[in-house]
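Backbone-to-sequence.
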């Protein structure tokens, strides 16, 4: 659902702000595509915001159908972050990636 916005932020080197699991989050998009389970997902580095796990920053895998209000913001992405790997095995197909 938000794949277009996520890929645009990736291409433009900007962060994406969205609501996910009831929290506002700012993320750097690294990969967008379809999971092996058939869901649209994105692999991101969360810069800041809330999280159910309590981890406010770090690597996250997010389902796009669970995201709300994804919008590119005027904040430069620092991607790629340490630990980034192209063509991750959690993706059946990739729409865009660094």
């Amino acid at each position: 659902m938000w794949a277009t916005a996520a890929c645009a932020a990736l291409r433009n080197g900007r962060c994406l702000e969205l609501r996910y699991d009831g929290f506002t989050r700012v993320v750097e998009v690294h990969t967008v595509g379809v999971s092996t389970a058939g869901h649209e997902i994105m692999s991101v580095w969360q810069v800041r915001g809330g999280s159910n796990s309590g981890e406010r920053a770090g690597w996250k895998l997010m389902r796009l159908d669970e995201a709300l209000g994804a919008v590119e913001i005027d904040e430069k992405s620092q991607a790629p972050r340490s630990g980034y790997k192209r063509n991750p095995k959690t993706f059946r197909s990739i729409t865009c990636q660094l």
